[in-house]
């Protein structure tokens, strides 16, 4: 990947919604100067808001932003991506890297619409990226090499964990980290509801549930120990935790999580197939 001689690659973020803003914030945290990043939005109020908050150039023309860019980050909804690619394809300079966070659209979808030889990288992010605690997987297209992937890792560095995978694994990634925050929210909500059932106020039960899930995740990440070891450590013989976990098993919660992830992966495959994946 050859960037401009005078510094960091110039990046255009197309779509300044939830993910677009997370990417913009990550770029600035990673050291991009505000004059090396621009954002497009078709709603002018949102464009103004982003310009005020981050001090970057904003505009409504995807083609003008893409023409100036070394890296084009596509962050619009999947149903708009085709139209946005049609706008930018005629103006892309040779070697411009196209990176997309749109869920479900295969690399072939981009490669079929962009000039031959355009390097494309697909990203499957998740919502905790907006607080720097995301988990993203990146997959390279036919013309993207290690340098392109390394650049995408730099772009995403401040959003959290970034791993490289082959595109065929993105359905599984979608099922685990892409949809996974919803499984964790489901658990948090169930724990909070149980707390209310047991007589705690909703506010107290919610705060305890959130802090407990956050703390357990931090402990698992920092200790590097197997979750079973961590679970056994808080399960004294004949105690409260082992009684609770026996009920989780009796209600097939583990099997439910596996079935949920399989359903998400299958749905991801179906959506990809609709777009030529
Ligand atoms: N949020 C997530 O957790 C998540 C996770 C994984 C992947 N993704 C992917 O990230 C992408 C963006 O999702 P999001 O949640 O950030 O959606 P979003 O908040 O709706 O952001 C999309 C933004 O793009 C704007 N936009 C629409 N058409 C445009 C155009 N032609 N040119 C420029 N901007 C345009 C939208 O403006 P209007 O609202 O005015 O239309 C909106 O501000 C999606 O493809 C999604 O699959 C999101």
Structural notes for this entry:
Its EC number is 1.5.1.2. It comes from Cellulomonas fimi (strain ATCC 484 / DSM 20113 / JCM 1341 / CCUG 24087 / LMG 16345 / NBRC 15513 / NCIMB 8980 / NCTC 7547 / NRS-133). This protein is α/β, with parallel strands linked by helices and 277 residues long. The chain has two domains: 11-170, 3-Layer(aba) Sandwich (Rossmann fold), CATH 3.40.50.720; 180-271, Orthogonal Bundle (ProC C-terminal domain-like fold). It contains twelve helices and eight strands. An eight-stranded mixed beta sheet has the order 3-2-1-4-5-6-7-8, sandwiched between helices. Strand 7, helix 6 and strand 8 (160-164) form a beta-alpha-beta unit. Helix 7 crosses helix 12 (253-274) and helix 8 crosses helix 9. The radius of gyration is 21 Å and the shape is elongated. The model is unreliable at 1-5 (pLDDT under 50). It binds NADP nicotinamide-adenine-dinucleotide phosphate. NADP nicotinamide-adenine-dinucleotide phosphate binds at residues 14-20, 40-43, 46, 62, 75-78, 80, 84, 101-103, 125-127, 178. NADP nicotinamide-adenine-dinucleotide phosphate binds next to helix 1 and helix 4.
